[in-house]
Amino acid sequence: MDIYAKNAPSVSVGVRLRQLREQRNMSMRTLASLSGLSANALSMIERSKTSPSVSTLYKIADALGVSITSFFGDEAERQQVVFIKGNERPRVPFVQGVWEGLGGEQFIGRIEPFVLTLESGATSGQHAMMHTGHEFVFCLRGSLEYKVEDQTYALESGDSLLFAARLRHSWKNAGNVVTNALILLCDFSEGEHLTGMHLNKTQKNV
Prior knowledge:
Largest sheet: 6 strands, antiparallel
CATH architecture: Sandwich
Strand content: 25-35%
Shape: globular
Mean pLDDT: 81
CATH superfamily: Jelly Rolls
Helix content: 10-25%
CATH class: Mainly Beta
CATH topology: Jelly Rolls
Distance between the termini: 31 Å
Radius of gyration: 16 Å
Order of helices and strands: HHHHEEEEEEEEE
Number of domains: 1
């Protein structure tokens, strides 16, 4: 089953990053200091010269004080009911994959569902992620390795994983085919933006 919405609107991470930064009157140097990323790396992302990893997006969102879903487009008023057609899911491309929103960026409750489409070799980035609440993962196609603390779980099509998101976690597609996974973040603290409370504040590679 191919759930990748090829005709869905694609969001430019670089353009959106510049908008979010300028809306907050934040200089590139300040954002670099707060995110632990270099000003050069951030400039490359803003100019669409490189695509950030998922963990890098989390670090940037954390520094900006926004949800990672803010990269899906302009923030709109939250709704109690959100309906999205399959070919209208907003997409954010990252290194070797695509993040597709499923309405969490528009919903009033504390839940953020999304779909990951991952090429072979795709990873969440150099550093593990941590946040409050719970994380549910359902492998729709292909295979996915999810590392939670020191334990690695090998998910194949139909397999699921549920864990406390305060635990250090990361993922990668170690297989040789494209992977699709449904991920659901929920019960996080009010006001928290699920921006990956990373243990490390520096990252050599974007």
